[in-house]
């Protein structure tokens, strides 16, 4: 009888562990444990080292950087920091912090800590959902990127990523929500946010209402960003297929024609212009 009890207990424990291993809580706790380890742990299934970026680079640029989210998985930031393209290092990174009203990017904590550890200029961005409360989205973002002292912890201004508007959305209401987010974040951080958007979406849905904000524009397979002639751009995301050492898969690559005013000049140095 005792032997049967032990056997049933052992079987019960085994079944419990199998079920637990297949559930989200287990993997969530495992991931949290991984994210608390040092940045030099073996976090990749491959070497993730490339002979080049795998994309054609713009002819002229002053700074070069990447932006990442959970789509890039766990990143070896030490390798990223030591990566060079055309003998030029990466100057900055933007890390996704939040998505809409409720979601955190699952690798933000790791990326935010690791980029600080390796000493690369960093900023945080929020993916905006226009059908959700702009105020709640701003509060969510602020809660992730500001420290216990309430101060923004990035080196570069916060970014609002705007890529969609629901069909039939009233344009004035759409802009009003965006402005609420921008004002809330600027008041809290003391920094004017950057607006990120695709070239076409920006021209059709955002210009000229947000002309005063720094612009980070995405436009692929183009010689330069196609935006209204009266609008200037600060950062250009020219590809989403770059290969960077330490990142196992494609990543967005961005350049600037000049050093944007919002960059801390003393930390950027004097990059050379490539011809």
Description:
The protein has 8 helices and 11 strands. With 275 residues, it is of the alpha/beta class. The protein has 2 domains: 1-36; 46-268, Glycosidases (TIM Barrel), CATH 3.20.20.80. The strands form 2 sheets. An 8-stranded mixed barrel has the order 1-4-6-7-8-9-10-11. α5 (134-145) runs parallel beside α6. The longest helix is centred in the N-terminal third of the chain and has 20 residues, at 2-21. The model is unreliable at 24-45 and 270-275 (pLDDT under 50).
Order of helix and strand elements from N to C terminus: HHEHEEEEHEHEHEHEEEH
Beta-strand segment tally: 11
Helix content: 25-40%
CATH fold-level name of the largest domain: TIM Barrel
The average pLDDT is 86
Name of the CATH architecture of the largest domain: Alpha-Beta Barrel
Tally of discrete structural domains: 2
Residues in β-strands, percent? 15-25%
Q: Numbering strands along the chain, what is their spatial order in the largest sheet? A: 1-4-6-7-8-9-10-11
Number of helices: 8
Task: Supply the helix-strand structural class.
Answer: alpha/beta
How does the SSE layout of this entry go?
Layout: H1 2-21, H2 24-35, E1 63-68, H3 77-81, E2 84-85, E3 88-89, E4 92-99, E5 103-104, H4 108-118, E6 121-127, H5 134-145, E7 159-161, H6 171-189, E8 194-198, H7 199-206, E9 215-218, E10 235-242, E11 251-256, H8 265-268
Parallel strand pairs: 1-4, 4-6, 6-7, 7-8, 8-9, 9-10
Antiparallel strand pairs: 1-11, 2-3, 4-5, 10-11
